[in-house]
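Attaching the record inline, Q. Sequence:
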Amino acid sequence: MNRIAFTAAAAATLAFVTGGIAAAPALFAQGAPQVPGAADPARVTAGTYAADPAHSLIAFEVNHFGFNDYYGIFGDVAGTLVLDPANPNAAKVDVTIPVASVTTASKGLTEHLLRAGKDGGKPDFFGPAPAPARFVSTAVKVDPKDTAKAVITGNLTLNGVTKPITFEAEFTGAGVNPFNKKETVGFEAETEIKRSDFGVNYGIPLVSNEVELDISVAFEKQ
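Structure, as predicted:
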């Protein structure tokens, strides 16, 4: 499964469990409802959008011992997107990720990620009260050959360290959420960082220094 497919599947699962379809008996009572979102740029209107934390996530992928890739998720994403379809290169993104919400399929690993350092020393990973991570864009460049795609450059602050990073982003859908009646736009993005750049060195190289990040975010117009 490729990274975008993995992210989309994870987002769909999260949406099913935390709201969306799981809370929609009235919608299903109507028969087969039409999907409210579509990858149609004409549906996007200018304004400030806020991330929908219940349907947004960041998945991370590392390689374990050279045997296989392992995944985890950060949820409860917050932040804003300022967007004008008439001038997409002027878009601005400011997103905050609560590192303390990290989760994996292994309870022991999740606990280790948030464990305090031994004898008051530096934690192996994030520690018990990690500050949220934050990404603030500095430039957006839309692909002139495919306006659904863009390169987003900005600064990522993680574990007390700020570094420039670049995402490859793709517009995935827009429409009106049938539950709260808010205009919603969706994007997926991916990038790769080196965790050592952010002071997270534990286990390198047995656990890869390179971390692939896959982002799936729904933004609701304010």
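The mean pLDDT is 90. The chain has three helices and eleven strands.

More tomorrow.
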